[in-house]
Write a structure and sequence with these properties.
Elements (H helix, E strand, L loop, with lengths): L1 H26 L3 E6 L8 H8 L2 H4 L2 E6 L4 H9 L5 E4 L1 H9 L5 E9 L3 E4 L13 E4 L5 H12 L8 E4 L3 H9 L5 E4 L3 H7 L3 E5 H4 L2 E9 L1 H6 L1 H20 L1 H12 L4 H14 L8 H12 L3 H4 L3 H4 L3 H9 L1 H7 L1
Parallel strand pairs: 1-2, 1-3, 6-7, 6-8
Antiparallel strand pairs: 3-10, 4-10, 5-8, 5-9
Helix pairs in contact: 2-11, 2-12, 5-14, 7-8, 11-12, 12-13
Length: 333
C-alpha cells in the first residue's frame, strides 16, 4: 500500500511537472505576426536591425516582414487583417481615424522629415519649382507631405506645379536623372546618390523642416487591446533595434546595406549618420507634431479637429520601457 501510494504520488508529480513545462513553453512560444516596412529608406533601420539581430525572436515574436510601399495600401491591408503592424505616415493615420478607421500609432519611427528636395542643377530656389514636374512615391505618402511642406514654404499654390507618382523613392531619382521630372523628395540613401550625381539640394527637411512624425508604427486598436503582450514585445524589439542602430555603426550599416542593396561605402555611411542623428533615443510619437497635424487637417475636416493626441497615439508600451530604465541602460552600453 505504501509503495503504491508513492507510485501514485510520483505519477501526480510528473503530471504537474509536464503541465508546468507546457505552460512555460506556451508563455514563451513565438507569436507569429506580419509587419510591413514601407520604404527603401534608412528610416526602416530599427525594423531591419531587429530582424537581422534576432531581436523579434528574442522577445517572443515570429515576425514575417512584408513590403508594401504605400501607407494607404498598408493601412487597408492592416484593417483587412492581412498584416498586424505597419509603418505609416502620421498624416494618413490621422485621416484614417477621422474617417472612422480603427487605427492607432503606438511607437515612433522618426519625428522628422528625413528628406531632401532635390532638383536639376539649374534650379536653385524652391520658388523656381513653379511650372515644374515634381516626383513623389504616391499621393498621401511621406514624400507627398514633404513636397507639400516645401512648396508651401515657397508660396506656391497647388496649380503652380504638377506631381508624378513613381512608386518607390529610387524611381524618383532615376526619373529625375532621365530628365522626365524637375525635382523630387528623396530620403537617404537616395538623396546621397543624388548629390553625388550633381543634383541640387533645394531643402534639407531633416535639418530645416518641422517636428513631424513622418514615420510611425501602427496597428488597429482592436488588435492592441486584445493582444497587449504581442504589442509590448513588438515595441521592446523595435526599441532595442533602435538603440543598437544608434550605438553600433557596423550593425547599422550592415542592415542598411542588405535592405537597400547599396554597395558604395560613402552612401552607406552618409545614410547611417543622417538617421542616427534623426532618430530619438526614446521612440515616443511627437505630441507637438500630432497636434500640429490635427490642427492643420482640422481646418478642412471638423471631425479631425475633435481628435486628441491620446486618441490617435497609444504610448503605454514605450512609457513602460522608460519606467523600467530600458533606454538609460541601452544608452550606457
Amino acid at each position: 500500500m505504501v509503495a503504491l501510494s508513492f507510485q501514485h504520488m510520483n505519477v501526480r508529480f510528473g503530471i504537474v511537472v509536464v503541465y508546468f513545462l507546457a505552460t512555460v513553453s506556451s508563455a514563451f512560444a513565438q507569436q507569429k505576426v506580419r509587419l510591413n516596412w514601407g520604404a527603401i529608406s534608412g528610416v526602416m533601420s530599427a525594423i531591419w536591425v531587429a530582424q537581422e539581430e534576432g531581436l523579434f525572436k528574442k522577445h517572443g515574436l515570429d515576425v514575417e516582414l512584408i513590403h508594401i510601399a504605400s501607407t494607404s495600401r498598408a493601412i487597408q491591408s492592416m484593417l483587412s487583417g492581412e498584416i498586424i503592424y505597419t509603418t505609416a505616415d502620421a498624416l494618413n493615420s490621422i485621416q484614417a481615424v477621422g474617417a472612422g478607421a480603427d487605427v492607432v500609432m503606438f511607437c515612433e519611427g522618426v519625428n522628422r522629415f528625413v528628406f531632401s528636395i532635390m532638383a536639376r542643377p539649374e534650379i536653385k530656389r524652391l520658388a523656381d519649382l513653379k511650372g515644374k514636374k515634381i516626383g513623389i512615391t504616391r499621393i498621401g505618402s511621406s514624400t507627398h507631405t514633404a513636397v507639400q511642406f516645401a512648396v508651401n514654404k515657397a508660396g506656391l499654390a497647388a496649380n503652380d506645379y504638377s506631381l508624378l507618382q513613381l512608386g518607390e523613392v529610387p524611381n524618383i531619382l532615376t526619373t529625375l536623372l532621365a530628365g522626365q521630372i524637375d525635382a523630387g523628395a528623396l530620403s537617404p540613401p537616395t538623396n546621397s546618390r543624388a548629390k553625388k550625381a550633381g543634383l541640387f539640394e533645394l531643402l534639407n527637411l531633416g535639418t530645416d523642416g518641422p517636428e513631424y512624425p513622418s514615420t510611425v508604427i501602427a496597428s488597429t486598436k482592436a488588435y492592441v487591446k486584445a493582444n497587449p503582450e504581442n504589442t509590448r514585445r513588438m515595441v521592446r524589439s523595435l526599441a532595442e533595434g533602435l538603440s543598437i542602430f544608434k550605438s553600433n555603426r557596423q550593425i547599422g550599416i550592415r542592415a542598411i546595406q542588405k535592405y537597400t542593396r547599396l554597395k558604395e561605402s560613402e552612401f552607406l555611411e552618409d545614410t547611417y549618420v543622417q538617421f542616427r542623428d534623426a532618430f530619438d533615443a526614446i521612440p515616443y510619437v511627437s505630441r507637438t507634431g500630432i497636434q500640429s497635424l490635427i490642427a492643420s487637417l482640422g481646418e478642412k475636416d471638423s471631425k479631425i479637429l475633435q481628435l486628441r493626441y491620446e486618441y490617435v497615439s497609444y504610448m503605454r508600451f514605450v512609457a513602460e520601457l522608460e519606467r523600467e530604465g530600458f533606454f538609460k541602460k541601452a544608452g550606457a552600453k
